[in-house]
Amino acid sequence: MSRYEIVAWAVLGLLLVALFYMIHKKFKEHNVWDNLVKQHQDSVGKKLSLEASFVSKFGSIENKSLLYKMDRLILTSGLKRFLP
Questions:
Q1: In terms of pTM, does the model score above 0.70?
Q2: First to last CA, the chain
Q3: How many CA atoms lie within 13 A of 29 on its CB side?
Q4: What does the UniProt keyword field contain (predicted)?
Q5: CB distance 71 to 54 below 8 Å
Q6: Residue partners of 22: CB distance under 8 A and separation at least 6
Q7: Residue from 20, 38, 19, 18 nearest 30 by CA
Q8: Is 45 exposed, middle or buried, given 0-12, 13-18 or 19+ CB atoms closer than 10 A?
Q9: pLDDT at 62
Q10: What pLDDT, on the 0 to 100 scale, is given for residue 10?
Q11: Residue 55: what are its φ and ψ, rounded to 5°?
């Protein structure tokens, strides 16, 4: 092998490594699992803020209360988006 062939293979190898690095970086940016975790954390944060607003509005209600059970059912089922 001549010196030019070795340099050409080295440049080709470096370009391939750079290409794989850029592809890997794009996959890391659009990671599906991280997006799901982020959405779940946002949803948990919203539920906690709704819980805090409920407690601040009505005060602490025992778990045996019918009003509390109805509110929990509405919050967890997702009907809160449609009900006033």
A1: no
A2: 78
A3: 6
A4: Membrane, Transmembrane, Transmembrane helix
A5: yes
A6: none
A7: 38
A8: exposed
A9: 65
A10: 96
A11: -65, -40
Q: Which tokens go with 7?
A: 């340099």
Place of tokens 């809160």: 80
Query: Quick one: tokens of 47?
Result: 């539920």
CA separation for the pair 26, 23 (Å, rounded): 5
Written as six digits, the tokens of 21 are 């690095």
Please report, in tens digits, the pLDDT of each residue of the chain (84 residues total): 789 999 999 999 999 999 999 999 988 888 888 888 888 888 888 888 888 887 787 776 666 778 878 877 887 777 767 666
Residue 4 pLDDT? 92
Rounded to 10 deg, the angle between the 66-77 and 32-58 helix axes is: 160
Cα 51 to Cα 65: distance, rounded to the nearest angstrom:
15
Instruction: Enumerate residues 6+ apart whose C-beta is below 8 A from 74.
Output: 80, 83
pLDDT 10s digits, 41-52? 888 888 888 888
